[in-house]
Amino acid sequence: MSLIHVSGLTKAYGGHPVVRGVDLDVAAGEIVGVLGPNGAGKTTTVECIGGLRTRDAGTITVDGLDPAGDPAALRAILGMQLQECRLPKKMTAGEALDLYRAFYPAPRATDELLDRFGLGAQRDTRFEALSGGQQQRLSVALALVGHPRIAILDELTTGLDPAARREIWDFLAELRADGVTILLVTHFMEEAQYLCDRVAIIDDGLVTAFDTPDALASRSGATQRLSCTPSRPLRPEELDSVRALPGVADVRVEGARLVVEGGADVVGAVVVHLASLGVTAGGLRVDTPSLDDAYLSLTGPTRRQDLR
Amino acid sequence: MTAPATRRGSGAPTPPPRPRSAFAALLASEARLLRREPGVVAWAVVIPVVATIVLALVPATRSPQEGLGGWSFSQVYLPVLVLFTTSLLAVQGMPTVLAQYRADGVLKRLRTTPAAPAQLLAAVMVVLGLASLAVAAVLVAIPAVLGNPPPGNVLAFGLVTVLALAALLSIGALVSALAPDARVATGVGTLLTFVLWFFAGMWIPRTVFPEVLGRVADLTPSGAASAALLEAMHGGWPSWAQVGVLLAWTALPAIVAARTFRWG
């Protein structure tokens, strides 16, 4: 039973269709990433789910509630962090959290949230004086004040330095342990790969792929690429024996380096085979297909045509 | 949660005390933010209070004048200064705050919570309204404390002040609703505030307005309020026409504002 169910969602602005039939199912406790180019309809999709926009057609249920029909009940179980939402300039971080606490029946403690988001020293700092990263962390914290069962986070780590981003990821991982279901709109493949159980790629108003990050990556058709410096040069017949290994697509020698390309299991097979020849693989490097490759291949204009 | 387990054997844990209602929290927050605006405090509070003290102390301005129909400047300017603050907070201050909130996504963000953005709108109006009334009360009290005659009909003075405040808040809400961005909201609000000050009698006292100008002023919210407040200084009650003008200026802008206000 999915906690969030979307089917056939459409939304147009001024006759221009932005979302053209999105289907999405999110199970309780899942972290689902929503990836896609700018203007693909990601934010519109999550804002329809969050009850901030009314859909043109399709059905949405969030824990059995229709966001368009029962917004009040939805607000109690859903926390949202929105793109480009700021706070009054002269409100301090602590005051903002205290204010939002008053909106919920059983809120998290202000100090707990300030500590979790590394804002303990900024409790009395006004919003205008916080750094971009601190403002962003405060914004995420506000979405979680009310102990939501579902959190929708739109571009939550945009503009953060890597350390701050990692801290937020850690906190999201803790939320997952609490059973919070998270819908995460992001631009960062790394973020999706690190955090998400499944990733929906939205392009031009449609979900073009929806799977685990690993499955998406392997679906992209990209290959594993292994390179190493053998402890001694390989003889031609030895190179042929590497070529004959299952899953190997290409073998070549580039200077002192041996380069092998092939399928998912190629690395182990090659290393074991080299060992059987009495050769050790020095300076071993493996490039695996990433979500980046999947993203590019799934949102490219030609591929887009294929998928329709 | 650390609920005492012995509580009548019921398994239900005691919920932690809810801090306060959403609206109370928004009110407290807006009041705090208003105090942090030194420009607003200086213009809306310090200047009229100092002006009232000076007018009430200087012999030339506290004595009746032939040209003012036997009134003193101190008395003639009391309604003007009350309307000065009310216009400034309601017609210039409110659109500035709300348009900035809209631009910054503060209103939209509130829509994601169980609190409604309308509650924030109401909190802003209540805080600005209470601040206006508090300043008005101080302005009325100052001359009395300093030995000048108080308004002859304090009840009527208070009633008209409240009616004027409602009309000006309604106009401020309309500007907030229609202005496309924060800059226009502040600009239009400031311009309207100057117009309202003029009709209240800020630059030419209401009692020496030429006939035609007086009739026009009687149809404006600040002009009608100013005349009615002078009447109350005399000990009289506002006319039905003055009350009607103020009620109309309350209802019409509010209706248009309610239909056109954008939250996002």
Describe what this molecule looks like in 3D:
The complex is a heterodimer of chains A (308) and B (264). By secondary structure, chain A is α/β, with parallel strands linked by helices. Chain A folds into two domains: 216 residues, P-loop containing nucleotide triphosphate hydrolases (Rossmann fold, 3-Layer(aba) Sandwich), CATH 3.40.50; 65 residues, 2-Layer Sandwich (Alpha-Beta Plaits), CATH 3.30.70.100. Chain A is 35% helix and 29% strand. The radius of gyration of chain A is 24 Å and the shape is elongated. The two termini of chain A are 28 Å apart. The relative contact order of chain A is 0.13. Chain B is mainly alpha-helical and 264 residues long. In chain B, helix 4 runs antiparallel to helix 6. Chain B has one domain. The N terminus of chain B is likely disordered. Chain B is globular, with a radius of gyration of 22 Å. Chain B contains eleven helices and two strands. At the A-B interface, helix 2, strand 5 and helix 3 of A face helix 1 and helix 5 of B.
Strand order of the largest sheet of chain A: 5-6-7-3-8-9
Largest sheet of chain A: 6 strands, mixed
Biggest contact = A-B, 30 and 28 residues
Low-confidence runs of chain A? 302-308
Strand content of chain A: 25-35%
CATH architecture of the largest domain in chain A: 3-Layer(aba) Sandwich
How widely separated are the two ends of chain A?
28 Å
Report the strand count of chain A.
13
Structural class of chain A: alpha/beta
Nearest-integer average pLDDT of chain B: 91
Count of DSSP-assigned helices of chain B: 11
Total individual domains of chain B: 1
Beta-strand residue percentage of chain B: under 5%
Biggest β-sheet description of chain B: 2 strands, antiparallel
Shape of chain B: globular
Total number of beta strands of chain B: 2
Integer tally of domains of chain A: 2
Helix content of chain B: over 70%
**Count of DSSP-assigned helices of chain A:** 12
What order do the strands of the largest sheet of chain B run in, or round the barrel if closed? 1-2
Distance between the termini of chain B: 37 Å
